[in-house]
Amino acid sequence: MQDGYFNPSSLYAQGFQVKKTVEACRELLKNKLSADEVCFTSGGTEANNLAILGSMRGSKKQGRVLYSAVEHAAVAEACHSLSDRHEVFSLPVNQEGILDLEKAKELMTPDTELICLMQVNNEVGSVQPVAEVVRLRDEICPKARIHVDGVQGFLKLPFSLLSGVDSYAISAHKIHGPKGVGALAFSSGTRLQPIVFGGKQENGLRSGTENTDGIIGLYAALNTYPEDYRIGELKNRLYQLIKKKVPQAQLNGPDPLSDLSCPHILNLSFPPVLAQTMMHQLEGFGVLVSQGSACSSRQKKPSATLSAMGVSKQAADSALRFSLSCLTTHEEIEQAANAVQKAYESLRAYTRR
Amino acid sequence: MRNLLLVKYAEVHLKGQNRPYFLRMLMKNIKQAVSPFGAHVRLHDSRIFVSGYTDENACINRITKIFGVHAVSPAVEMEKEDFTAVCQKAAELMSGKSGSFKVLARRADKLYFLDSPKIAARVGGYVLESNPKLSVDVHDPEHSLQVEIRDQALLYVNSFPGAGGLPTGTSGRAMLLLSGGIDSPVAGYRIARRGVELSAVYFHSFPYTGEPVKEKVITLARILSGFCGKIRLHVVPFTEIQQAIHEKCPDDFTTLIMRRNMMRIADILAQKEKALALITGESIGQVASQTLEALMCTNAVATLPVFRPLIGTDKLEIIGESVKIGTYETSVLPYEDCCTVFTPRHPVTHPKLRQAEYAEKPLLIDNLLDEMIIRAVDGTEVIEIG
Fold first, then answer.
1. What ipTM was estimated for this complex?
2. Which chain B residues contact residue A284 at CB under 8 A?
3. CA-CA distance, B2 to A353, in Å (whole number)?
4. What CATH code is assigned to A232-347?
5. Which of A274, A281, A350 has the CB atom closest to B246's CB atom?
6. What distance in Å separates the CA atoms of residue A73 and residue A209, rounded to the nearest whole number?
7. Among partner residues A280, A349, A351, which is closest to B206 by beta-carbon distance?
8. Domain span at residue B192?
9. Which residue of chain B comes nearest to A352, CA vs CA?
10. Domain boundaries, chain A
11. How far is B358 from chain A (nearest CA, A)?
12. Is residue A232 packed enough to be buried (19+ CB in 10 Å), middle (13-18) or exposed (0-12)?
């Protein structure tokens, strides 16, 4: 933590050293994403907000804003905040949680200004058809910007801003970096205005002294995160094992073997056991899973993603999310599956009568 | 001349031969509360004086929360011989104020050269002359300036109401059944206010309730301990009993039987703690397990008296009180609803004791219930709070 102590905006040598590391991190991110610009933020939420609010702030038109029905709240809520001046629509998804391109096409109009689509859904791991949406945009509304929330997909699936996407948000803690730091990568044609004002750091786009310790941590994570990300087979193994031991388990999202499923997120329902109960029981066995998205598990509302997919209430109430990392081992997959069986067997008898 | 706090005590005044005992406890509690601020506490002329503190507001805040305190007034103590100086000080105390006032004078030192009416008239006249925004109203004044002539002169005008009640530690100990809800902390507060020390019991149903709920209960106990001192919180592992009830007893009686078993366990733990009563947050008819019939069924298993200080209180009044004592915000944190699995859709509302006993019978086979209760009591975790 001492490395990042000095202020990168200061002119003494120690501050300059910190600035050099921050800039090295910026360059590395630009390379990895073929981005022209990178702006460091306090995390994925701020990066998404900057992309959405920052690009719409300069808009004189009152065009449409579209986002997929399974976007993270950081995107959906930011889009909603624009609804006093713009028509804001959510684009429906199919039962696997993947954007319905036909319906999206119907909602895309020539005056559409912004389309937000996540690379990978955080709750069910569905991979979104970004390339197809870029194609539709070029066809119907070439002036519209496309923002991709890459918090879950970054480094797990390939991505490049050369694909025609205008901005891409990431978060350090999803690639084993520290919490509280993220970035927005964008191409030079993207006109963004600041949403945080002050000392004009980050080219005036994001005022406030940089979280240097966080950025150094992000840099280290970028340098150590494996290029070759092969945990898809582990995820499928976990799914097959659980399915064998608990036949009642229901898959939410695309088949783990298909290309439409990301390598690291598996969402399963265990009716009739409530997700929270199952989660605590698994916690007792040393297996940590989450309900829906961990960020919203304190709210009582059912998951927006699962409702958009048309998942039944009972299945949604019992849905758990298993997240794998590149450090997950075969033994851990076995342990997790056994724990799930044990937890389910011990709880299934107790249902509300 | 110095600043000090004058603490007036409430019901302790009514005590006869026991008054020194109550006063001793009150003094002890006040001393403990203000010790972090280096304050000195003295009992003199049946008043309590706190002086020499580093932070007056913090001391006032602590003292007003102490049970047995009627009010706290920041006061000035000064030489009484120079009466003009006394008048000047009085004017200074009243200088920021406007509206009606009166001077209340008390002369304990009967040798003082002015009597009470004359003191009041002279001080009042001086104050009135120096502050044109004030007027005199001896019947219903906005400000009452008190001037007392004892071995020294004592002046005070502001007064902060205290918590009332009796000093903690003068009435024995009781065991509070503490859930994460709104009612039980208020019930605990009301009984603690009568000088009763609290122990608490919380029934934990992991994995149906997780760590956050337990943390919430600990927070509630900590808020209560700010009024009544240390609380020993007993966290009882209750899952096994809940599951057995769910498996073996008729649906409509499960909640009632659960409550009966909470009472049994609380009763056992209370006796271990040398507590003399149980406290619950029940209020007539609030939910199915709080109808008179249901209360009778749960009461039947307790050997200690069960105090229900909220029994005749409306929910809105309880909420108001929980806001006042500062437990509301914690109580409404949205963590619950994990035990819905065990909540029957149609619980009995008018159970008879013999029906409840009959519904409970499947648990009695092979001493199952006794053994489960022993396991729950043995597995209880005790957390010291405050």
1. 0.73
2. 206-207
3. 70
4. 3.90.1150.10
5. A350
6. 26
7. A280
8. 173-385
9. B341
10. 13-224, 232-347
11. 20
12. middle
